[in-house]
Amino acid sequence: MIIESHIKEGLSRAYVIAVAHKAGMNFSKPDFDYGFDGTFRDTRNYNGRYCDTGFCIDIQLKATENVVMEEDYIKYDLEVKNYNDLVLKDVGSPRILVLYVLPPEQDEWLNVSEFGTTLKNCAWWCSLKGMEPTTNSSRVRIKVPKSQLLTEVSLKSLMNKVKMGEEICNLT
Length: 172
Known about the structure:
Number of domains: 1
Structural class: alpha+beta
Largest sheet: 5 strands, mixed
CATH topology: Trna Endonuclease, Chain: A, domain 1
Protein name: DUF4365 domain-containing protein
InterPro entries: DUF4365
Distance between the termini: 41 Å
Order of helices and strands: HEEEEEHEEEEEH
Pfam families: DUF4365 (PF14280)
Strand content: 35-45%
Strand order of the largest sheet: 1-2-3-6-9
Shape: globular
Helix content: 10-25%
């Protein structure tokens, strides 16, 4: 049996892969972990053949049930190393945090039956671009806007911003 953190990681990855594919994009995982867990990659039909466009969004993926839910925000204590990776300037691709929030009870994380498969709960995205690096020793509390649910529609919108040369910024 694998450890709980790997179960969480696998479920969160399944979620982002499903969202990417529903949005018509690829999701790639790097061979080595240098701070990012994957990349959403845009594709396009060129004369009947689908190709990678080169537009992409790097993600740091976190899966947890340890959040504070407020009316407009989700508060999460992000590890300093991950926070500082997400706020780096002079990077080639936009970077976002994807926070997959699981129910407190492990039995509720995944339900499979002949009537369907349910993966609970869902993920939100957050940009930390423009924030300053921290000197905290272990964690930084961040606020993820609840309006930034990661869906195929929101992912397409984020990728369209990248393709138009716009910044990915939080909505609220």
